[in-house]
Structures are given as structure tokens and as C-alpha cells.
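Two proteins were folded this term; both appear here.
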Amino acid sequence: MDYDEIGELIGEIKFRYVQTGEWDSGQCTKLLQLTQHVPMMVGRKRGVSFDDLNDIVQQSYHAAFKYLHLLSDDRSFPKYLYTIADNLCRKYWKKRIKMGYPESLEFPDGHAKALEPVQMDYEQMHIRENLRDAVSQLPDIYRETIEMHYFAGMKALEIAETLHISINTVTSRIRRGRILLKDILEA
């Protein structure tokens, strides 16, 4: 994924929208092609059924474009999209659990796996939410690096290029962030 290309594309899309009040469909299509794997990956990772996965992707892009003007670093669009998709998946599961729908999950290999009892899903969701809350308590430099590495799936080199820091600094921040995260969770 070329973050510079994505950043330039987002800048052009924003500029065009400010000038004309319309989205450039060609540039938006190109952006979709470059980044659509992000919400798809999140949905699959979070166990969203194949039928609902397209809805998650569509809602992710809808929210991303709705609040695109709030994005301070255009190169971070994939991380922004990842966070939106992840939040939509959490809402999806909260709604399903609340409604009591323990359905089967579909996986890319075509095999289906039955969900654990609803109580187990609730406990796993609670653990994930506690982890997200703990990550949000980290100092900004560690939180940003941890989110980019673990939640957005970025490699140390990609993080270093995005943040304009050395790879050693990235690995150091990840290590220190994990230590702080452990302390927060154990408290």
C-alpha cells in the first residue's frame, strides 16, 4: 500500500470537493481500489458473515467520506478507514448479541463455523472493549504506534515512513507501549 499515493489522492479528492461541491467519481473509484481490502480484512477478522460484509464496507466508506474533512493527515486514510470498520463491526456484534442471533460464520475457504454461545461472545467483546479502553489511555506516541501496528496491521517500516521516524524508534515505542498497556490492564 503506497501511503503517499493515497495521501495525494485524498488531497485531490478534498480539493475537488471544496471547489465543486461534488466527489470526483474517478478518483473515488481509484481510492476504493487502493483501500477496499482494509474494511474487508477487518470484517473477516471480526467474523462478520459474508452477506453482511458488503454492508460493513459500504458503511465504512460512507462514514469515511462524511468526516473526511476531519482527517488531518491524508496519508493515514487506511488507518482511519480501519478504525471506522472496526467500530462498525463492534456495533454489528453488539446488535446481534442483543437480538440473540447465534448464526454460523462463513469463512473465505467456504467452511462454516458455529458461534460459541452468546454469553461467550459477550465476554470476548467485553475483553476487546477493555483492551481498546486501555489502549486509549496510553500516551499519544505509544497509542498511535500500537494502533498502527496491531489494529491497522502496519509493519514497522511502514509506520516509520508514515511518522517520519526511524525503525528503531518504532520498535522501541511498540515495546514500551506493550509494557504500559500491561500495567494499565493489571491495575
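Next, the second protein.
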Amino acid sequence: MAMRYIKQLTAVTVLAACCAVPATAHATAIVATFDVDAQGWTANPGEGSLAYVASGGNPGGHVQITDIGVGFNNGFASGAFVGPAFLGDLSAFDGGTMSLDMATFAGGGGTFASFGRVLLTGSGNTVTFDVATAAPAGGWQTFSASFDAASWGVSQTDWLAVLSNVASIGIATDAFDGGDTIGIDNFQLRIDANAVPAPATLALLALGLIAVGYRRRRR
């Protein structure tokens, strides 16, 4: 009977593992390395320009956003909008990490506090996070943020509503009160491939174990 119980338990475990595949069979990272082109990234209209540069990145290519010095536009000074690979349903990356590399290529004067602010818009709502507080000096620097509701200061319900239908992700790059040029490289969203199983998978496993225990008790 012990051997039969072990076989039943193994079968339930395998079943749960198989059912878990659809929940985890998504990309564990989306990355813009700019090694070939700008990957669909654009500049904030009317506030600056975006150029692809094939070298000088971290490493390889990168994009540069040049501020034209006309000031703020609805609280979002010159900046970049990420490419289409990062739009749509991003709910699979809830609890993951957002990161990017930035460098200053030109600029000076007073600083803008909005530099490094990320604006994530989806389902008609916008949430923000200040991933950086000052323009990087001395070369490329990596900035990162937890990609979860608590870090972005919203409820889990509102956060998932935004992530389920992301329409745009903007990064404020206006660092100084004069003209400036900021580089961006290696923007990515990632989640741990070894994350805790989805709740549905855990529930399935629990039901299977209960069923095995019930059958064993009857016998």
C-alpha cells in the first residue's frame, strides 16, 4: 500500500507540474540592447529628438535623447518612449525588476528633479516611479526598480489593470535646465525564472494530495 501511495503522489505531482507549464511558459525577460537599431523607440514629441548610435553603448549600440530646451510638457520633459516589444499585456512581469543603463553625453546648469522618472500608462491610468534622482556622471550607470504595486505606490488591483494593457512607457531624460543629451541602453523587464509557482498550480497540487489522502483512508 505504501508503494501504491507513492505512485499516486508522484502522479499528482507530475500532473501539477504539467499544468504549471502554461503559467510559466512566457518570456522571463524583455531586453532592448540596441545592438542593431533603435528597436522602435521614439522621443517625446516636440520636446527632443532620439538618435540611434551604433557604438559607445554598454556595450555596443544605444539611443541618445537630445533635449531641445523648450521646457516641460505636461510635467514630462524631453524623454524616450520604449518600443513595441514592451507594450501590451505585461502582467507576467508583476513582481519582477525593471532596469536600464543611462549616461550623460552633454549637459550642464541647474538640474531637473523629474530626470529618471518612468511613466507607465495602461487601461487609461498612469503610474510613475523615479528610477534615478540625478543624471549619471562618469560613464554608464545602471538603475533599477522593483516592478510591483507597492514600489509604484498603487493598489494591486490598479497595478494589474495597468499591466494588463500597457499603452506606453516613457522615461524622462531632461536632466538640466539647458540642452542635454542622455544615452539609454539595456532597458529590460525581467522576472525570476525560478519564482514561486502560480496560485492555480499550488491549488491543483493541494487538491491532488487531498484526493490521494481520501482514497488511502477509504482503503
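The chain has two domains: 1-27+199-219, 29-190. The longest strand covers residues 96-106. These notes refer to the second protein only.
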